[in-house]
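Section: Multi-chain targets

For targets with more than one molecule, the full set of components is provided together so that the structure can be written out for the assembly as a whole rather than chain by chain. Components appear in the order listed by the source. The example entry contains two components.
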Amino acid sequence: MSNAVSALQGASFDGYCKVEEAGLTGMIALRGDLSSAGVANAVKAVTGAAMPGQGEVTEGAKGRVGWMSPDELLLIVDHAEAPGIVEAATKSLGDAHSLVVNVSDARAVYRVKGAACREVIAKLTPADTSVMQPGMLRRTRIAQIPAAFYLEDDETAVLVCFRSVAQYAFDLLKDAAQPGGEIFK
Amino acid sequence: MSTRLAQGGRLIDRSKPKNFTFNGKRMKGYEGDTLAAALLGEDQMLMGRSFKYHRPRGVVASGAEEPNALVNLGQGERFEPNQRVTTTELFDGLTCTSQNHWPSLEFDVGVVNNYAARFLPAGFYYKTFMAPAAAWKHLFEPVIRKSAGLGQVPTEADADRYEHYYHHTDVVIIGGGVAGLASALAAGRSGAKVLVMEQTHHWGGRAAVDGGEIDGQSVDAWIDATLAELSAMENVTLRTRMMGSGVYDHGYVLGYERVADHTPGDGRPRHRLWRIRTKQIVTATGAIERPLSFAGNDIPGVMLASAVRDYVVNWGVSIGDRTVVVTNNDDGYRTALVLKEAGLEVPVVLDARAEATGPLAEAARAAGIRVEPGRAIAKVHGGKRVTGVSVCLQAGEGSALEEIPCDAVAMSGGWSPVVHMWSHCGGKLIWDEAQAHFRPDPNRAPTSHDGEAFVVTAGTASGAMSQADTLEDAYAAGKAAAKAAGGKAVRKAGPKAEAEEAQPMAPVWIMPQGAGPQKRMKMWLDYQNDVKVSDVQLAAREGYESVEHTKRYTTLGMATDQGKLSNINGLAVLSDALDQEIPTTGTTTFRPPYTPISFGAIAGEARHEIFQPIRRTPMHQWHEEAGAYMEPVGHWRRPYCYAKPGETNEQAVHREVLNTRERLGLLDASTLGKLIVKGPDAGKFMDMMYTNMMSNLAVGKCRYGLMCTENGFLSDDGVVARIDEDTWLCHTTSGGADRIHAWMEEWLQTEWWDWKVYVANVTEQLAQVAVVGPNARKVLEKLGGMDVSKETLPFMQWADGKIGDFDARVYRISFSGELSYEIAVPASQGRAFWDALLEAGEEFGVMPYGTECLHIMRAEKGFIMIGDETDGTVIPQDLGLNWAISKKKEDFLGKRAQERSHMTDPERWKLVGLETLDGSVLPDGAYAVGEGNNVHGQRNMIGRVTSTYYSPTLKKGIAMGLIKHGPDRMGEVVDFPTVDGSNTVIKARICDPVFYDKDGEKQNV
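Its structure, encoded as tokens over all components, is:
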């Protein structure tokens, strides 16, 4: 859809970490029995990723899968393909009690890049960022809003929040990454 | 005179001078100076005035305990009052002014209070200002505000930025003196994750001032070596300029880091508040020296003995040429020796003990210093500066034996461990007879969730008084904390110092012990608040027994130093007056913060545009660019109206109403809550959540529904759409989305956990636009795509499809009474969709409208609004919504509550329409009055206005209200007295609440 834009349309800021809005990202909320083969199969089929354990995010050829709660997963996929994946996953789950819903546009996604990405986020979240490693996902808050984050690699944190507070989240991250705010040099 | 010595000063760099001003006077100090050291180096002993009597005040201490020397620091947007000079680092260009005096520091008319001191005793405020009440406001308060008070209030916004930082660790060590460093060595060697914080900018605390050796090295060399070892440990974090502010439950600690106080304007955050979660806490907070209570102990030039020594050794500053030392313990002799070594004169050491036999006393004698045991200060001479002392017997009543001229007095009344951090979370104290101080009781530590201790004290903070004991205790504390936090066992030995012999100290609470009333009136306990020995004794005579009450009555310990110097002396005097043991009296409560921390640090990043989150719809920017007047709806900002140039908001609202009714209006309805409810049991669940039947709603259709709390009160409303066999979509109010989502989850997770239902909040996934007015269909047909005709998409149905190029779900629902489509598109397409509608709608007279227009149109139609017609006490039956309450359903949330007698009471106020006889607009919230008065003598009320507007459509005021027996009183006139002072009564006729198109013909076309 050519008219589609993300909340901040790729806004970025160069601080002692680089903060950039990731642009349109496909996201799907999947609720169901996470211990069932049906869910694992559906997830594998649409993303190629294995089922994540508690606090984990897995990666497949077509997307990532994050553990959000004992009965909820977050599928991170291509934005344009999200509606098709919702359909495919719903079909794959068949009669099993489940809910698959496109939430791509309900979210804003940021990348915080730099050696100090954990430190920048730790100015805003009470979660322990120092123990975070790629493959882990943490639902938490940043300042006054809910958020979740994971690491793509040791120097790239991906942070997800609601779309309506995209500007607030960006301004928070910008403030936290301002040069001069380095805690450990 | 105080002055800078030619040599010395272990913390300063004489090659780096720093210029600053005090009360406009240019002065010079050096890098490494505190502001106190720099001022003293320039002979600026007088730094302020006391709170009550405006007596001259100079610096007493050298650290965080300083009660007197506060200044207004900085200028303009960096101005801050009450800054403690002993904890302010000097920097180039610093400006400061003294406080609490008028017209000048040197000449203060307020000092007249001093001569009236006997009329201003303890409890003066309470006794004098009892009555009459008016006198307080008009006489006492203005006078007291002028004469009492400290710094000035800043007038400009703070230029600096602040931030928080969340830190997680195993062991936090508060205090970076030798004890803290020894603890850090032990904890660090265990492999535990350790954070060490030191409030000053240098490590090692006071140990280097006192000299001696650790592990065979000088103290300074040991500190350097230890820091090198600690810095090399990856698991140890060292922070200076960071104070332990408070210890809280479950290992939560606040660290107050003063990042850039000494480098203002360099772009760094000024303060950073560390919000720390730790398993164990070591408090290595040291001890504070106690003053002695003798007459004139507040005259500038009388200082703590340790502070006098600190200024010489750390900053190369002497307080005076001739310093009399007065002590009740061995430590005071260290000051005498340091002064002597610096080439200064010590005419005498007055030792209140009957004999002076300790090694330090012997060393003083050997250095040629006159030592006088059993002697005390009868009186200090001088006004703004010490000129001499009268010497007397400590055992006597104060007859002067000798006059000794001097320009400084160094006093030592013994040491009290800093127990604040230990006590914040409930650590208990024991009274140590030998040292005459309260110290932490290791058997009654603060405990965490598991009942285990999570705070341990180290070194002097434990009550260890010698270097050897301090190091041993601190290393053991570090080991213990690390072990409790899961670290490995540490076998390596800790640092050691030679054991020292010492003569026991003697508690001295009044000097001389038999001093009479005249002398006691001149013995200061709390310097800043002017609380004297006589005040505490008076409080005791007047019946104050509790130390907490005495504190508040006398203001002892209520100054900005929070009693760091006055606490123990004050309660010792109180105990004596009450004729009881000191432990029986006890202490006041130690509460965080240890010293005041800035509001900026507490607020952190939450200022300016990130003060709080603002929620924005995908069309928000368009609204702002269109000049919309925005109003808060929860955290959302929604357009109230879009005033055009030259138009008032009211005119704009009226235009928007008429345009929507006559042509075409667009409303950004994206904030509307949208919850998806899905599952085999979803129908059953929907029937419980809503008062009306939702399970039988046909796929493709919409139904308006009400939600009540379990107590029957109306909580939320909105249109529900049946999406498929298993799925419903619930619209909630804008402010209610998160609340209703949580409400649904709560029932599903706690009560109906076995029902197969999932709920998802998709509010923000969708941008929603209400396309409203007679031309609504035309604009959609122009954009093309799906069939939106009356036949294919009748009123109260929905369909998926394309509008133009957009993925749309179109609802035929109307909150305005007009032909109306609410169209949801993915939020990413929302702005483009809005733009497309505006462009295509131009020929049809399209105008966006705001929330006020929405309100008026719904009021014209008699539609209720959650929050206007409801306030948490209103049930659907009050609003005539019985048609939306199922009688067939066995149960729904609120059903049983609505059957209670009070809920079915025919006397409940019920919704009606109201039209004023003169066409005017009723005031919002106006009350209708009935006959007679209630039991309180107030006029009886029979109803109130819930919504009231000027209707541009009907050209008159319209309102809705809840009126007693309202629906039975159609056509009757009720009185609404005004409260604007005009004493008028507005008369309104009770009518049907639907003012416009009662049959709904306009919306159903």
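The CA atoms of residues 19 and 83 of chain A lie 28 Å apart.
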